[in-house]
Structures are given as structure tokens and as C-alpha cells.
């Protein structure tokens, strides 16, 4: 941020009085611009024993597979966002079950929250940000072509929970960017 979104004057980077970390502060109107982490909402759409994955038509990780997920919009609930992203990326309708993973990525200030979900029908097709949509059995998951470490972890937890017949919420952190492709 270089300019104040309130008045257009330049901002500087400093610790406000009574605060403990640096913020963007307007040099004219003194507005403090707080930046906070973003929430990525999504789901694991299930049909029978298969999961729906989307192959990305956008950067980053163009051409790799992911679960439907994206940034929450203002005024939206977490579950609305998960359903909307699934509709936008896969033209699919889901009924959400419990929250399955909450993964924090402090280096990019994202918190990813993914629900388990059921497709209401085996009807799906690529949205504008997707090259391809496909149902996969566990043994068919393209582990080496997944777009994100968060998705790899979410899928591993899902299959492990399903095998033992007990789903639970998994809360974890990924402190640094994993190695490329990792
Ligand atoms: Zn200002």
C-alpha cells in the first residue's frame, strides 16, 4: 500500500500509539490501515466413494488439481463461500457437512477452511477458472499433480478418517512455503 484508500495521500509505515506492530498510516488523515489474514473457504465434494477435483485454469499452479476453494467475499458466511466457490469452479451443488480442515499459512496470511460435502447430483463441469473437473477414487488421486500442500493434507486426513470410520476436525499450520512442487 502506497496511498491512503480514504483520502489518497501517501501512507507511511510505523507503529501507531498504543499498538505493537507496524501499520500503514496515512500522512494526511491519520487513518490506520489494518491488514488482516484472508480466509479461503472450500469443500471436499463427495459422490459415492469418489471426490471431485478441479484442474486449475489460472495461476498460481495452472494445470494442477485442487479442491474447489477461494477467498471469502465481504458479507458472506463461511458456508456460503464454500458453496459459491464450488458452483463457480465446478458448476456443482453441494450440501455441506462438518468442517474438516483449518490450515493456517502465516507466510501468506491465509487461513484455509474446508468442509466435507456431498454433491447433490453427479453433475459438474469446468467453471471459467477450471480446465477440467473429474471424480476420483482414493487410488486415482493425482498426488503428484496437486496444486497445493493444503489440499494434499486435507485429502490425506479425509482418506485416513474415512478408513477408520471417524471424521474429525484437523487444525494445523504450515509455517513456511513448502519446496516447489512439494
Ligand atoms: Zn488518508
UniProtKB/TrEMBL annotation:
PROSITE patterns: NUDIX (PS51462), NUDIX_BOX (PS00893)
One Pfam family named in its UniProt record: NUDIX
GO molecular function, one term: hydrolase activity
InterPro entries xrefs: NUDIX_hydrolase_CS, NUDIX_hydrolase_dom, Nudix_N
Domain Nudix hydrolase as annotated: residue spans: 36-159
Cofactor requirement: Mg(2+)
Name recorded for this polypeptide: ADP-ribose pyrophosphatase
Organism in which the protein naturally occurs: Methylogaea oryzae
Record lineage: Bacteria, Pseudomonadati, Pseudomonadota, Gammaproteobacteria, Methylococcales
